[in-house]
Design goal:
Blueprint (H helix, E strand, L loop, with lengths): L2 H16 L9 H10 L1 H14 L3 H12 L4 H11 L4 H15 L4 H16 L1 H10 L1 H10 L6 H8 L8 H10 L3 H11 L3 H7 L5 H10 L2 H6 L1 H6 L6 H14 L7 H9 L5 H16 L8 E6 L5 H17 L4 E6 L3 E3 L7 H8 L10 H10 L6 E6 L9 H12 L4 E6 L7 H8 L4 E5 L11 H4 L4 H9 L10
Parallel strand pairs: 1-2, 1-4, 4-5, 5-6
Antiparallel strand pairs: 2-3
Helix pairs in contact: 1-2, 2-3, 3-4, 4-5, 4-6, 5-7, 6-9, 7-8, 8-9, 8-10, 11-12, 12-14, 14-17, 17-19, 18-19, 20-21, 22-23
Length: 478
């Protein structure tokens, strides 16, 4: 593996970890470049990201590229992985292939045909898929000229759902004239929240209780804003149910830390609910890995680095929650400020950072010198900065002294922030053969948990090897 190839693989990883939701155009070229340069790695990365990643847009691009690949093992892997997606994403994957790859190969059409026919075999499975993804299911049948079965045709195209179908029940729900009957139908038939609120003109507290009882923890998080708008937070009984679902979410294997962060960020929540969502995020982040290496976090507090301080306190909370080894936190301008919190929650770190203000010059090396003088041993250093180091001691110089005195060679991860950020420090470190990676922060706080896979492995090579060791699914119907 030469340096350029390894850099490209890490660039791909960094792009996956830092790209904001719904901005895939920023990495589409990297996707295409790496599948051409190293298709074997790309295939394993696609499977690894399916299990480890959060951003669904990336998963769709991976699947579209696998299904249109020239490699049979890619197409077969994509064929099997497609079966795991909900209808709306399968529809988006098909559109991606048409619009960005210019084709939907025969094997991809076969994968969609199997997807639809497997659902048709089980009426309950089909009804629920059609109820949640009606438009997407119709798009798949019509767009790929796949003939629907009798039930699919009646539910999706003829608008004459059979009486034993969920689509028929929803029509009856819309006609029900009292909340007790509406609640009974929702509970008995487990009618999804978005479908029920679309069918009903008014949502009473009785109906809200029935809906929340039928929802998974993830569904509650996904629909928290809608629930709030319908008065759920103002009714003690309903709010108690929501709180119970959020408590379950912290330990669930089917909840996204990303979505919990989004929910917390777009709503005006009371302190109790906001704290519950923060706990969900923290617990879900822990499942991505724990940091076993002694770690230092340096946070730039020089002039105009308010954003670095905000990112720094969030990273400190995240790291302290998943670290099983020492964590040393320093803010710096031209002198280092040790930062210690009395707990591991974001609120604890906000209090620890509250008296720090962004002003002064920039010496990243002064924080490194503090580590050296206090004989604090670390194996990795995370630096939140715009890389505008303009005062001694300079990081590359102190790094070398630290390595000599502590018999260590810590990895450096730069979390680059600020409108006028440069790669000045990165290039100085690379010139001295110091191991360094960068994570460009583009204002999306929800992307920060994606640093965990990079920080929780002993080295970047370990992470790359873990990806290569992830097996590709094998098609089972050949």
């Amino acid at each position: 593996m030469n340096a350029a190839e390894r850099d490209l693989r890490l660039e791909m990883l960094n792009s996956l970890l830092t790209t904001p939701h719904r901005q895939l155009e920023k990495v589409s070229e990297v996707h295409q470049l790496i599948i051409e340069l190293d298709p074997i790695f790309y295939g394993h990365l696609a499977v690894w990201y399916q299990r480890q990643g959060d951003v669904r847009d990336h998963k769709e691009v991976f699947l579209g590229n696998l299904l249109t690949s020239n490699l049979t093992v890619h197409r077969d892997a994509g064929y099997m992985m497609l079966q795991e997606f909900p209808p709306y994403q399968v529809s988006r994957i098909v559109d991606f292939m048409k619009q960005h790859r210019g084709k939907v190969p025969r094997s991809a059409r076969s994968a969609v045909r199997r997807y639809l026919k497997e659902r048709e075999k089980n009426p309950n499975f089909f009804d629920r898929a059609a109820l949640r993804g009606r438009k997407a299911m119709k798009h798949l049948y019509a767009g790929l000229h796949i003939k629907p079965g009798e039930r699919a045709n009646a539910v999706l195209f003829k608008e004459q759902p059979p009486e034993d179908s969920l689509a028929f029940i929803v029509k009856q729900l819309a006609k029900a004239n009292n909340s007790i009957e509406q609640a009974r139908m929702i509970v008995e038939y487990n009618i999804p929240y978005p479908v029920a609120v679309g069918a009903l003109k008014q949502i009473s507290p009785t109906v809200l209780v029935a809906l929340i009882n039928a929802m998974s923890s993830q569904e509650v998080i996904n629909n928290l804003k809608s629930l709030q708008q319908r008065g759920a937070m103002d009714n003690p009984q309903v709010k108690q149910l929501i709180d119970a679902k959020l408590a379950e979410a912290a330990t669930s294997d089917r909840v996204s830390a990303y979505k919990a962060k989004v929910a917390a960020g777009v709503m005006d929540l009371n302190a109790e609910t906001a704290q519950a969502l923060e706990k969900v995020t923290n617990e879900q982040v822990k499942k991505r890995g724990s940091i076993s290496q002694p770690t230092a976090l340096f946070v730039d507090k020089s002039g105009s680095m308010e954003k670095a301080l905000e990112v720094g306190k969030r990273l400190a909370a995240m790291l302290s929650g998943i670290s099983t080894a020492d964590l040393f936190v320093y803010a710096f301008d031209t002198i280092p400020y040790p930062v210690q919190a009395k707990g591991k929650e974001l609120s604890d770190w906000e209090r620890a950072f509250e008296h720090l203000t962004a002003d002064g010059g920039t010496s990243i090396g002064c924080a490194m010198e503090a580590l050296r003088r206090k004989k604090q041993f670390v194996e990795q250093i995370i630096i939140v900065t715009d890389e505008g180091e303009n005062a001694a001691p300079y990081l590359p110089d102190v790094y070398s002294t630290y390595c000599r005195d502590m018999a260590a060679m810590p990895n450096v991860v730069i979390v680059r922030v600020g409108s006028y950020a440069s790669n000045y420090v990165e290039q100085k470190l690379k010139a001295k053969q110091i191991p360094v990676e960068t994570f460009t922060f583009a204002g999306d706080y929800y992307s920060l948990p994606n640093l965990v896979p990079m920080l929780s492995r002993p080295s970047r090579l370990d992470l790359l090897m873990e990806i290569l060791d992830t097996p590709l699914p094998v098609r089972d119907d050949k």
